[in-house]
Amino acid sequence: MEIIIITGMSGAGKTQASKCLEDIGYYCIDNMPPALIKNFVDINTNKDINKVAFVIDIRGGEFFDDLKESLSELNVRGFVYKILFLEAEDDTIISRFKETRRNHPLAKAGDMRAGIRQERKKLADIKKISDYIMDTSNLKIAKLDQELKKLILEDGSEKDYFNLTFKSFGYKQGVPRDTDIVFDVRFLPNPFYLVSMKKLTGNNKKVQDYVMRGEGCKEFVKRVHDLIEYLIPFYIKEGKSSLVISFGCTGGQHRSVTMANVFSKLFLDEGKRVITIHREL
Question: Is the full-model pTM beyond 0.90?
Fold first, then answer.
């Protein structure tokens, strides 16, 4: 039986993730008390359900504290499971709760930020052992579905499950919180100062060609590519299943977008799992 535990921050998209998995054949149970996982597994012994996803989060109150014990029991009984952890930036979570006119489950007296801080602290341990960690701050529903299907549908070894996210951003808006490695590409020529390319982005071939002709650019790409290839096995050895590599320029429109696209293509061509996010676009 394939088991996926969906958990993470309130407002990060767990319900949508559950719907996505349901669409691709998983039997999904929302707000599942962890202690009942073993009961479901026992009940399903003679059933034909071979793919199941449980949404487990802090809505369960004290029941959530049973999660570690329940996972340990699955390990003892030889069941393989994956943990999908969804998170988002504080402001994004607050905005989503306001849009739906709902209260954060840990917000007392309307203090949503305090509730979010408390939830992050409570989820810290489960996040550390998660197989997939996805920041949904800048993902629309369709993109979230697309990336989840990339993670879940492709078969492969442990190495095949390693996820590379290449993200572009502008320093004017700050460095993305979920970044593991940051490269500042403001040393490259800036198309912003050319009238013919000012309103274009790094998704445009004309901009890409201009940036790639910059002094040292091709050598930079080669060395960073080699560095990432070198580091991946060590991250896998340490139990990580994903790596977020961000490229920053001034506005996040030209140079950083070009680099995120270049590296995405390089690693896609090598058969790696790749997600590309252009935050400022």
Answer: no
Contact present, 83 and 132 (Cβ < 8 Å): yes
155: tokens are 């078969």
Question: What pLDDT score was predicted for residue 177?
Answer: 87
Q: How many helices (H) and strands (E) does the chain have?
A: 9, 9
Q: Other C-beta atoms within 10 Å of 199: how many?
A: 10
Token pair 């890409």 is at which residue?
A: 208
What is the Cα gyration radius of the chain? 21
What six digits make up the tokens of 138? 């800048």
Distance CA(123)–CA(51), nearest Å, equals 25
Phi and psi at 26, nearest 5°, equal -90, 140
pLDDT tens profile 76-117: 888 889 999 999 999 999 999 988 888 888 887 778 899 999
Whole-angstrom Cα distance, residue 165 to residue 173?
Answer: 19
**Alpha-helix runs per DSSP H in 65-111:** 67-76, 90-100
Tokens at 272, concatenated: 């790696």
Please give the Cα distance from 120 to 181 (Å, whole number). Answer: 22
**For the segment 19-69, what is each residue's pLDDT rounded down to a tens digit?**
888 887 889 999 888 888 888 888 876 677 888 999 998 887 777 878 888
CB 15 within 8 Å of CB 140: no
User: How far apart, in whole angstroms, are the C-alpha atoms of residue 34 and residue 65?
Assistant: 8
Amino acid found at 109? A
Tokens for 152? Answer: 């879940």
* CA–CA distances in Å: residue 108 to residues 12, 14, 118, 149, 268: 19, 22, 11, 36, 45
What is the three-class DSSP state of 12? coil
Token pair in block for residue 82: 């994956």
Question: Would you say how long the chain is, in residues?
Answer: 281
Q: Indicate the average pLDDT of the chain.
A: 88
